[in-house]
Amino acid sequence: MTLEGDRRSSRRRLLAVGGASAVCSLAGCIGGLSDPGDAPAGSTETSSGTPTTTALGDHPAAAGFADQTRFGPSPGEAAGTVVAFEDPSCTRCAAFERDTVPKIRERLGDRVTFVLRSYPVVYPWGEPATQAIESAFAHEMEALNPERDVPADASTAARPGFRQGSEATWALVGHYFEKQEQFDTSNVFERTRTFLADETDLNAEAVVADAEEKAHDDAVQADLAAGKEAGVGQTTPTVFLFRGDEFRTSARGSISFQVVKAALGV
Amino acid sequence: MGRTARLVLGGPAYAALAVAAALVALSAFVLGQNLALAEFALTAPIGLGDRTTILLGLYPFLGTNYGPVAELLLVAIAALAGVDVAMVVYHFREHGVGLSEGDGAGGGAAGGSTVGLVLGALGAGCAACGSALLAGLLSLFGVAGAATLLPFDGLEFSVLALVALVLSIYWVADGMRGGEIRGCPV
């Protein structure tokens, strides 16, 4: 082979190696962060490499989290906090709710606060479903009997079974995830009305009427704004994990209970 | 195509390369979907057990991030990418051809393989994150939202990637025809 041939061969090999590296890099990056604006806030390192942390109260994902649908100890009093952005129409969110969330509630319910934030970005029926969730939650909180429903102390709040919005909102959320394949934009309100009337104590007509009129759209927009600010982008579920007051990391997809537990260190 | 691939992978070095490339590709796919979590697992002051749990939990069949079909597609795409890389490297090393179209049929095949790998990578990424990525890609062409009309949550794109990788391997194998592979005329 001539010298020119050697040079060409080397160049080809360089191109091949470079191409393979580019492919791997591309595969690794395309799904995670589609643009710089999608970078999850509160990350433990800045682009300059300077370590930073974001406290629970200051993290955009947790903005107003005390007013959200949740279970576990009162906000800020738990060893760990999980803030999950989920879309009722998202199939991987359904898997997360089916496989991971019940284990968090059963095994860590006394130590971890789980906060659900509705984030409709996948299929169109997720948006009206989210309006219905927020409407049901508002009606449920309105009907709350402080004597009966509000825990008297932290130990009661930490009881694994205690859930804010436990009577109807969680049931409705579970219904959407369990029956996803039966929903579309044309029947979501009708099916919601039937479910609430049959399975909960809420005034189904009033809840659905509010949802149709987007009476609680401010709550929906608050979740969307929090998710956008936190870098959720278009990926659900996206989960933000806090240990005590400190942000630890975020995760995309239906991560397992073991991953949540290991990341929280609880 | 199958015979050529078997002959190439019959060499222990190329078989090892294929496995390594497949593992690298799979790791890039799954860790890339969760960069923040992967970075946390690798750098945070946590125990080795927790570190391992988090990292392994992101892989198909070991964790819960993917549905059964997506898991199969991810592994298949990674495996085919490994085979593709091994065959391309074999082609480069043994037959002395490159990426340039001007190098004739063999060079064209290798170039096609690169395209196949890129498409495969895109498809694997899509299998991992579902319709969100596909919607993003389609938005480049002004049809954002079209992905939500697809019935399989973006897995369609992964199937296309699988087809692209098979075609890629076919082209490489075709480019090897007329030569010898490990002493065997193909």
Mean pLDDT of chain B: 77
Helix content of chain B: over 70%
Overall pLDDT score of chain A: 79
Please state the structural category of chain A. Answer: alpha+beta
From the alpha carbons, calculate the radius of gyration of chain B and give it in angstroms.
Answer: 18 Å
Please give the order of strands in the largest beta sheet of chain A: 4-1-3-2-5-6
Largest interface (CB within 8 Å) is between: A-B, 56 and 60 residues
Task: Please tally the helical runs of chain A, counting DSSP H or I stretches of 4 or more residues.
Answer: 11
| Estimated share of beta-strand residues of chain A | 5-15%
**How much helicity do the residues of chain A have?**
40-55%
Rg result of chain A: 22 Å
Q: Give unreliable regions of chain A as ranges.
A: 1-40, 42-52, 152-162
Q: Could you tell me how far the N terminus lies from the C terminus of chain A, measured between alpha carbons in angstroms?
A: 63 Å
For the biggest sheet of chain A, the summary is: 6 strands, mixed
* Main sheet properties of chain B: 2 strands, antiparallel
Describe this structure in words.
The complex is a heterodimer of chains A (266) and B (186). With 266 residues, chain A is an alpha+beta fold. Helix content of chain A is 46%, strand content 12%. Chain A has a 6-stranded mixed β-sheet, sandwiched between helices. The model of chain A is unreliable at 1-40, 42-52 and 152-162 (pLDDT under 50). Chain B has 186 residues and is mainly alpha-helical. In chain B, strands 1-2 form a two-stranded antiparallel sheet. Chains A and B meet through helix 1, helix 2, strand 6 and helix 11 of A and helix 2, helix 3, helix 4, helix 5 and helix 6 of B.
